[in-house]
Design goal:
Order of helices and strands: EEHEEHH
Helix content: 10-25%
Structural class: alpha+beta
Strand content: 15-25%
Largest sheet: 2 strands, antiparallel
Radius of gyration: 12 Å
Bound molecules: zinc ion
CATH architecture: Orthogonal Bundle
Number of strands: 4
Strand order of the largest sheet: 1-2
Shape: globular
CATH topology: DNA Binding (I), subunit A
Number of domains: 1
Length: 86
């Protein structure tokens, strides 16, 4: 059983998910996003770190405009032109 990052497509075994995955809020709580199921997504911690308080659309746009900076994680660069399309 694996978990998949909503943003970069990186997968991790569920047994390691506590290390690599975080619950992201599509609309950040700091900008009024509620903590309800439709506003939650599983994101790898590298994507979540970069997303910060951006909304989903802002973050995906930022990644497309800054492909060389996208993803801090072990697969940095691997997804630059991959599953980032909206
Ligand atoms: Zn990710």
């Amino acid at each position: 059983m694996t978990l998949t990052c909503y943003y970069c497509g990186w997968q991790s075994y569920e047994s390691l998910a506590y290390l690599n995955f975080q619950v992201d809020h599509l609309i950040p709580p700091s900008r009024g996003g509620p903590d309800v199921p439709w506003n939650r997504a599983s994101a790898c911690r590298w994507c979540n770190l970069q997303k910060g308080d951006k909304t989903e659309l802002e973050y995906r746009t930022w990644r497309m405009l800054n492909p060389s900076e996208a993803t801090y994680g072990p697969y940095r660069g691997a997804f630059q032109y991959g599953p980032l399309a909206i």
